[in-house]
Write a structure and sequence with these properties.
372 residues, alpha/beta, TIM Barrel, 10-stranded mixed sheet, 6-stranded antiparallel sheet, 11 helices, elongated
């Protein structure tokens, strides 16, 4: 079986939601960490697991306005809604779908990931009326109690899929699910299983191993996925199958989204590299500059520092330098060339100049900081 150009494997066409994601065109909405299930392989970070928090990509969200801003920043063509289980906060889910469709139009493609625990026909009816284009169910492999609910989704003219992690040792259970669900779904998405650095994931404790020292992907997961594609082909089931590999997520999906976000987040003087990272000059105060404990310090109140920096920004402007004030990480942003050109003048103002390369995402995670 040959790997496709996205570092994954597929039988028939990829689901429409996957096609958008691979191109980096979908905003990822983490709608809530609340979920009726507590899977032993759950990849959620400890600060999201069973916590009612909302993110659009890396941005914390408290309003629909911020949701739209993040989508516009990356020129999103759609959104994937995940969790937790978004149905645990159904009203919020419906509101976000409606808001995005109203603002961007019916062509804005929205898909959702959900367990079957909270699925009912009335709930699916509400999701469809709100404008949902594609629904992906995550059934429990060890209990078929809720599997009958998969058929409910067939009543609506949208795309229906099963999306599950490809768990080594669960070949029998997955084949049973395929046999049961194939008349009701359009596609099967098999995610290469990955070990998560959190308290909930018990994969290592249960004896699973990563395929090498440089990967979080679980040994045997990809191989099982390929066997399952062959199983579907041999059975001549009509559904499409896609193995979403760890490499696809990192090297293609995330990479393309980052590059897309860079185009929207860049300032006039920023330099964008081939990976979508932004390089710019930055002026800090000594007490709040990148270094030990910097990320924790950013969570504190910095009203006084902001006031001082804004006063100093006026002095910097006198040097005929274009500046942008960054209130999230209190600092003055300038071009790389200006940062190098006026080092002595900045230091006389008690500013700490640096060349910074960082992600174009809301958290602006630093990749490299070179103090001048």
């Amino acid at each position: 079986m040959e790997e496709n150009k996205f570092y994954s494997y597929n039988h028939k066409d990829l689901p429409k939601g996957c096609q958008y994601c691979i191109k980096g065109q979908k905003m990822v909405i983490f709608l809530t960490g609340i979920c009726p299930r507590k899977c032993y392989f759950c990849p959620l970070s400890d600060d999201k697991f069973q916590k009612d928090v909302i993110f659009a990509n890396e941005r914390p969200i408290i309003s629909s306005k911020e949701l739209i801003e993040e989508a516009e920043l990356m020129d999103a063509k759609g959104a994937g809604i995940t969790g937790g289980d978004p149905l645990a906060k159904l009203d919020r889910t419906l509101r976000y779908i409606t808001t995005l469709k109203k603002h961007f139009g019916s062509h804005f493609h929205i898909h959702i990931y959900t367990t079957l625990r909270l699925t009912t026909e009335p709930v699916l009816q509400k999701l469809y009326k709100a404008g949902l284009d594609e629904i992906r169910f995550h059934p429990d492999l060890d209990a078929s109690t809720h599997w009958k609910k998969i058929a409910f989704a067939e009543k609506f003219p949208w795309q229906v899929g099963i999306e599950i992690p490809c768990i080594p040792g669960k070949e029998k259970e997955i084949k049973k699910l395929i046999d049961y669900s194939h008349p009701y779904v359009d596609f099967l998405n098999l995610n290469e299983l990955e070990v998560a650095d959190n308290q909930q994931s018990k994969l290592i404790e249960l004896g699973f191993e990563t395929k090498d020292d440089f990967s979080y992907a679980v040994k045997g997961s990809l191989e099982l996925g390929k066997e399952l594609i062959q199983y579907v082909q041999e059975k001549e089931y009509p559904l499409a199958v896609h193995i979403c590999t760890a490499k696809l997520k990192d090297a293609t999906q995330l990479s393309n989204r980052i590059k897309r976000q860079a185009q929207g987040a860049k300032l006039p003087f920023d330099i964008i590299d081939e990976e979508g990272m932004l390089t710019r000059g930055a002026l800090y105060l000594e007490e709040l500059s990148p270094g030990a404990g910097y990320r924790e310090k950013l969570k504190e109140d910095h009203e006084e520092i902001i006031e001082r920096l804004k006063e100093l920004q006026q002095e910097v402007k006198k040097l005929n330098i274009k500046t942008v004030f960054d209130e999230k990480k209190p600092r003055i942003l300038i071009s790389k060339s200006d940062a190098k050109k006026h080092v002595k003048k900045f230091k006389k103002l008690n500013l700490k100049p640096a060349i910074v390369t960082e992600y174009p995402t809301y958290d602006q995670l630093e990749v490299e900081v070179e103090f001048l």
